[in-house]
Amino acid sequence: MKVLIIGSGGREHAIAWKLAQSDRIDRVFVAPGNGGTAGEAKCVNLPVSDEAALAAWARQEGIDLTVVGPEAPLAAGVVDRFRAAGLTIVGPDKNAARLEASKGFAKSFMEKYGVRAARSTTFTDHGAAVAYGAKHFARDNPPPLVIKADGLAAGKGVIIALSQREAEDALKAFMRESTLGEAGQTVVLEDYLAGREVSILAAVSSAPGKAGGAILPFVSARDHKRRFEGGQGPNTGGMGAIAPVPDFSPAAQEDFRRAILEPTLQGMEQEGMDYRGFIFFGLMVREDQCFLLEYNVRLGDPETQAVLPLLESDLGELCLSMLDGSLGSFSLRWKPGAVYAPVAVAGGYPGSYRKGDPITIDREVLAKTGARLFIAGASTGDAGDLYTAGGRVLALSAWGSDGDEAHARAYQAIEAVHFNGMAFRRDIGRE
Ligand code: AMP
Ligand code: GLY
Question: Backbone dihedral region of 352: left (phi > 0), alpha (psi from -120 to 50 degrees) or beta?
Answer without folding.
Answer: beta
